[in-house]
Write a structure and sequence with these properties.
phosphoacetylglucosamine mutase activity; five-stranded mixed sheet; 19 strands; 40% helix; binds 2-acetamido-2-deoxy-1-O-phosphono-alpha-D-glucopyranose; 540 residues; Alpha-D-Glucose-1,6-Bisphosphate, Chain A, domain 3; 18 helices; alpha/beta; phosphoprotein; binds magnesium ion; globular
Length: 540
């Protein structure tokens, strides 16, 4: 194997002057820099699979909402979760090894982690629609062959589909089987669960889905074939921005990130007033809803609004199913969640809120501490996870009334409809459609549940963002010294003020967030805190 790894790695030399890091969402950068990184991620996957006794590891090649010329790669653990934290550092070490040291570093990891070379290594992988994908797959395959790994190429998939397949592969034939190990199995599971969740309910009008000209387009077209039209148990979906042939159109003036950051609909959307619209990102793991209100203009229904909608609906069902005493429901957010949403969950829904650092892996982990854990980043990445106790209770609780029986049936359907491995735009869309149908709500009624505090996110370029160190789920700075006190002083002067600064995990910048009772105060606070950070950043 050593000779094979050496020979293969010589075809994928590392750019000499580059330092790589497994960040919030794996490795992500300009695609032309990624060849050696993807090759080495293949080596990590082989190590990880062997370390876990031959369980299958997933690899997704995507750069999500980034521009078309970027690409990226991330690893998926056997139950479909993000790669375990400590392995991010091993991946980083291997990605940064000099070509001549690569084998030494690989064998060093093998030894340190007590990996048995005789254990089989198994990997599945897929990619999004970027033009750079196929060449990167070839680099990956070279690593998998050199390490004697068994592998399956699932070609084009959304990121959550690859997470789904990873879990299905590892649970196949066991009592915990997550579903049929195929793309078709994914559509069947979702569409069947949707019909059950929608029993006796109807969606109203159409939902316009902007697919960011990414892999979500062809996959949603596929899913639609399995769904009924908008009669009982169905939904009318109008797909826009589904052109995957024009490479440069990916995420261009469309997609979840565009809508969230620009606070406007994609120019291609022709949806009328009050019509439901949503946007996926380039690998379909994020979703944002929105609509045009004839009086107030564009209205965003972001990840916070999806989380509160899901928590309120599932909370009601758990009560109707008489399971409130045995199941703990909670919502997990990050510091970027709008303060009004946090207040709404705690005060109006009466549910606890946990706050974690940015990055889905932290939210997911915190959500598993609840029996029903609802987590979403404000940008639309999230899901709902159910504990084994919750799933058992949904199955075994004896209903004493038709209403209780119906609630239990809906809960069982939701557990199948909602992707348990990771945020999934297609599954989340069907969840939102289900809830709105049950509540007979238009997007306007959903929007009115609470009013977002005006807020502002500012990107501040500094010389060294790593000087900005935080605590308390990134809500407070411990370094540079004294800066937090200055921020606190500014915040105390505005009504409902809140502000924090942290180093981005995906860009070379510090992000400043501020919110306050009025637009003017929020903007002013953000710009003052950004000013402080800029000053601190100078010369550091
Ligand atoms: C404020 C914000 O939206 N941050 C994003 C962004 O992380 P940063 O560490 O803030 O760059 O990219 C992450 C990965 O996609 C995503 O999880 C996160 O929510
Ligand atoms: Mg994404």
């Amino acid at each position: 194997m050593d000779d094979k790894i050496l020979a293969a790695s010589s075809k994928h030399p590392k750019p000499v002057d580059r330092v790589f890091q497994y960040g919030t969402a794996g490795f992500r950068m300009k695609a032309n820099l990624l060849d050696s990184v993807v090759f080495r991620v293949g080596l990590v996957a082989a190590l990880r699979s062997r370390k876990l006794g031959g369980q299958t590891i997933g690899i997704m090649i995507t750069a999500s909402h980034n521009p078309p010329e970027d690409n990226g790669v991330k690893l998926v653990d056997p139950m479909g979760e993000m790669l375990e934290n400590s392995w991010e550092a091993y991946s980083t070490d291997l990605a940064n090894a000099k070509d001549e040291d690569l084998l030494k570093v690989y064998k060093g990891l093998e030894e340190k982690l007590k990996v048995n070379r005789e254990t089989p290594a198994r990997v599945i992988y897929a990619r999004d629609t970027r033009a750079s994908g196929p060449a990167l797959v070839r680099a990956l395959v070279d690593a998998l062959q050199a390490t004697g790994s068994e592998y399956t190429d699932y070609k084009l998939l959304t990121t959550p589909q690859l997470h789904y397949l990873t879990r299905c592969t590892n649970t196949e034939g066991t009592p915990q089987s997550y579903g049929e190990v195929s793309e078709k199995g994914y559509y069947e599971k979702l569409s069947e669960a949707f019909v059950r969740a929608m029993k006796g309910k109807k969606t109203v009008g159409t939902v316009t889905v902007d697919c960011a000209n990414g892999v979500g387009g062809p996959k949603l077209h596929e899913l639609v074939k399995y769904l009924k039209k908008g009669s009982e148990g169905g939904v009318d979906i109008k797909i826009i921005n589904d052109d995957v042939l024009k490479a440069e159109s990916l995420n261009h003036e469309c997609g979840a990130d565009f809508v969230k950051t620009k606070q406007r609909a994609p120019p291609t959307s022709k949806a009328g007033n009050n019509e439901r619209c949503c946007s996926l990102d380039g690998d379909a793991d994020r979703i944002i809803y929105y609509f045009n209100d004839p009086e107030h203009g564009f209205r965003l229904l972001d990840g916070d609004k999806i989380a509160t909608l899901a928590a309120s609906f599932i909370g009601d069902l758990v009560r109707e199913a008489r399971l409130s005493d045995e199941l703990k429901i909670g919502v997990v957010q990050t510091a970027y969640a709008n303060g009004a949403s946090t207040k709404y969950v705690e005060k109006s829904l009466g549910l606890p809120v946990a706050c974690t650092p940015t990055g889905v892996k932290w939210l997911h982990h915190a959500a598993t501490k609840f029996d029903v854990g609802v987590y979403f980043e404000a940008n639309g990445h999230g899901t709902v996870v159910f504990s084994p106790q919750a799933l058992k209770a949904f199955r075994t609780k004896d209903p004493e009334s038709p209403a209780q029986a119906a609630a239990l049936e809906t809960l069982r359907a939701l557990a199948d409809l909602i992707n348990q491995t990771v945020g999934d735009a297609l599954s989340d869309m069907l969840l939102v459609e289900t809830i709105l149908a049950h509540k007979t709500w238009t997007p306007r009624e959903w929007d009115l549940t609470y009013v977002d505090l005006p807020n502002r996110l500012v990107r501040v370029e500094v010389k060294n963002r790593y000087l900005f160190k935080t605590t308390d789920a990134e809500r407070k700075l411990v370094e540079p010294q004294g800066l937090q006190e200055q921020i606190d002083a500014l915040v105390s002067k505005v009504r409902d003020g809140r502000s924090f600064a942290r180093a981005s995990g995906t860009e070379d910048a510090v992000r400043v967030y501020a919110e306050a009772a009025t637009r003017g105060e929020a903007d002013d606070l953000a710009s003052k805190v950004a000013g402080l950070c800029r000053q601190e950043g100078i010369g550091s």
